[in-house]
Specification:
It is built from six helices and two strands. By secondary structure, the protein is mainly alpha-helical. It has a single domain, classed as Fumarate Reductase Cytochrome B subunit (Up-down Bundle). Bound molecules: protoporphyrin IX containing FE (2 copies). Its cofactor is heme b.
């Protein structure tokens, strides 16, 4: 990983961060409609219009996330990222680093297991569903960390994910 090689995140990196975050939140909030629609179809029951459209949105937004994260990782690996802001507590710094890379792993694993559940075997859906609480936990830790940096340490960490430096 190239870290510390640049002064801050670029506009495309920032745009991708917030776009992907918004799409992931949509997936987490409305993902159940995919389960409901597939269960109903499996039982030969009618699927409500709202579940059908939310399931279709789940499919396409999930694929969009996979494409966007591919782009984001390519930028991350070629252009790099600014050096992490030390928090003064080494275990927090290690936690932040781990959460960032677990996010990238999950952002690839969720669409892949989703596609496998859809096309290959419904049992993989159980693995896909475990991703939901894992994602929520990581987001909670990540947001707490961002707010801690911004408002207690006042080191401008949130700002650098809002204002491009290049
Ligand atoms: C980052 C992307 C994704 C996230 C965060 C996500 C999240 C979720 C969530 C929260 C659920 C509901 C779990 C529950 O009912 O408790 C779900 C179900 C499901 N998703 Fe995704 N998903 C993503 C991408 C995809 C993609 C690309 C597909 C491809 C078709 C997909 C297919 C499915 C299927 C088939 C289910 C139903 C699983 C089952 O009932 O066993 N997902 N997803
Ligand atoms: C699903 C939601 C989210 C995901 C998947 C996500 C993912 C990530 C990832 C992977 C990074 C590391 C970037 C890199 O250096 O490669 C990052 C950085 C960052 N995120 Fe998020 N994020 C999410 C939501 C949020 C939210 C809601 C906030 C604000 C409260 C936030 C604030 C930040 C900040 C400030 C950084 C920069 C950290 C630094 O400069 O070291 N993120 N995010």
């Amino acid at each position: 990983m190239k870290s510390g090689s640049i002064a801050g995140y670029s506009a495309p990196q920032i745009a991708l961060h917030w776009l992907i975050a918004a799409l992931v939140l949509f997936q987490l909030v409305f993902g159940e409609s995919m389960s409901v629609a597939l269960d109903a179809a499996g039982e030969g029951e009618a699927v409500s219009a709202s579940d059908a459209s939310l399931a279709s949105a789940h499919y396409w937004i999930g694929i969009a996330i996979l494409v966007l994260v591919g782009l984001r990782l390519a930028l991350r690996l070629t252009a790099g990222a600014p050096a992490p802001q030390p928090s003064g507590t080494p275990i927090f710094d290690r936690l932040a680093h781990a959460v960032h890379w677990l996010f990238y792993a999950l952002l690839v694993a969720m669409p892949v297991t989703g596609l496998l559940a859809y096309y290959v075997s419904p049992e993989i859906g159980e693995v896909h569903e475990i991703g939901k609480p894992v994602f929520i936990l990581l987001i909670a830790v990540h947001v707490a960390g961002a707010l801690y940096h911004q408002f207690l340490l006042k080191d401008g960490t949130l700002r650098r994910m809002l204002v491009p430096s290049r």
